[in-house]
Amino acid sequence: MLEIKQEGATVQFNGELNCTTVVKHWPFKLLAKLPKQAEFNLAGLRHVDTAGLAWLLQQLAQAKKQGISLRFSQMPTQLRNLAAVSDVLPLLPTD
């Protein structure tokens, strides 16, 4: 299960971001409602698989097309390790 809440410029993620949950959030319409400077707070993610990582990368690409500067905050260690192993960690705008 994945819960996504927007509070101003911050989008809070809670639960699992995986091949099952990303399908329910495709396309991610909330992205169009964000201001030009936005944040994905990932602290509440318990598990992310490669589909979830790919979904996050897709949101970065879509945000860029829409002129939104998106950053990821409080990235869980499991996601950071997956991104490192997948050699995409440098692509993720983290704090």
Topology at a glance:
Layout: E1 2-7, E2 10-17, E3 37-48, H1 50-65, E4 69-73, H2 77-85
Describe this structure as you would to a colleague.
With 95 residues, the protein is α/β, with parallel strands linked by helices. It has one domain (2-91): STAS domain (Transcription Regulator spoIIAA). The chain is built from two helices and four strands, in the order E-E-E-H-E-H. The protein has helices spanning 50-65, 77-85, and strands at 2-7, 10-17, 37-48, 69-73. Strands 1-2-3-4 form a four-stranded mixed β-sheet. Strand 1 (2-7) and strand 2 (10-17) form a beta hairpin. The protein is globular, with a radius of gyration of 12 Å.
Reported by name, the CATH topology is: Transcription Regulator spoIIAA
Show unreliable segments: none
CATH superfamily, by name, is STAS domain
What is the CATH architecture descriptor?
2-Layer Sandwich
What fraction, in percent, of the residue positions are helical? 25-40%
Overall number of structural domains: 1
Strand order of the largest sheet: 1-2-3-4
Question: Mean pLDDT, rounded to whole units?
Answer: 96
Share in β-strands: 25-35%
Q: What general form does the structure show?
A: globular
CATH class annotation: Alpha Beta
Give the helix tally.
2
Number of strand elements? 4
Task: Describe the main β-sheet briefly.
Answer: 4 strands, mixed
